[in-house]
Amino acid sequence: MSTATQTHYFDLHIHGIGYVNRIREVSVKRGDNFWACDIAALHGAEAAVQYTRFDCRVSGSEAEKLIKRMQKAGQDDKKILIGFKLGDLYTDTFTYESGAKQGETGVSLKARLLFIHWIKVDGVTVYTAPSKAEAGNEGPAAPQTTDHTAPDHSAQAAPA
Questions:
Q1: Least crowded by CB within 10 Å, which of 64, 91, 113, 136?
Q2: CB burial readout 66-92, b (16+ within 10 A) else e
Q3: Given pLDDT bands bounded at 50, 70 and 90, which one contains residue 16?
């Protein structure tokens, strides 16, 4: 009689709101292509908002569908604000290849975009994830389009 060893994990998730930029499909030599985007997450006082940039690999089929849907809006310079959940945060160092910091080492925060709670494009809610109660055991519910209590920062300049 063999006993299977069960692996346990500790999750570290980041929840927030932020602007989505640089939506792209990344081609790799080995393995499957994947979707990625940058998120400029808002934090601090509403009157003096600060941003932290995350370079995200899109994970999960629903998040990927939603990000793909937003690619044209991003190309059209529309402000895409999302409620998000990130996981697997790590840092990556790189060397600036041009500009005032050429030759200097920089640090990028990388994470996986796991879930999108809602999406606003130019201040208009275009997607709301179904609540867990709505999804129930009957499969995913249709996306909702109700508004949220999150502050609408779409009037501010979205960081690039």
A1: 91
A2: bbeebbebbeeebbbbbbbbbeeeeee
A3: very high
